[in-house]
Amino acid sequence: MNYEYIDPIKRAQLYWERRYGIILGIVRGLLYLHENSRLRIIHRDLKASNILLDEDMNAKIADFGMARLFGRDETQGNTSRIVGT
User: Fold this and answer.
1) What pLDDT, on the 0 to 100 scale, is given for residue 21?
2) pTM
């Protein structure tokens, strides 16, 4: 978890139960992107700095610059471009 942008008061509230809730929020977001959205979205650059927390410490997935979109019936895709940060 990237602590440098978290308010010191909120940082003190990051007990394990809350951290677990943040992780569940990330997992639910990924499940939605992969299975439940109109298009299948593969993020391809998920890392701590791409997870934002709102004022209630709910996780929000951000930075979809390297994401790949798939139709509902597509199960795989090819790319010849190497990506990463």
Assistant:
1) 94
2) 0.71
Whether the predicted pLDDT of 2 surpasses 80 = no
d(CA 55, CA 10): 9
Contacts of 11 (CB under 8 A, 6+ apart): 3
Please tell me the distance from the alpha carbon of residue 34 to that of residue 27, in angstroms, as a whole number.
10
* Residue pLDDT, tens place only, 47-58: 998 999 888 889
**Do 45 and 71 touch, CB atoms closer than 8 A?**
no
Rounded CA separation 62/70 (Å): 18
Q: Catalytic positions, please?
A: 45
Residue 75 has pLDDT above 80, yes or no: no
Any idea which architecture 8-70 has in CATH? Orthogonal Bundle (1.10)
Are the CB atoms for 68 and 77 separated by under 8 Å?
Answer: yes
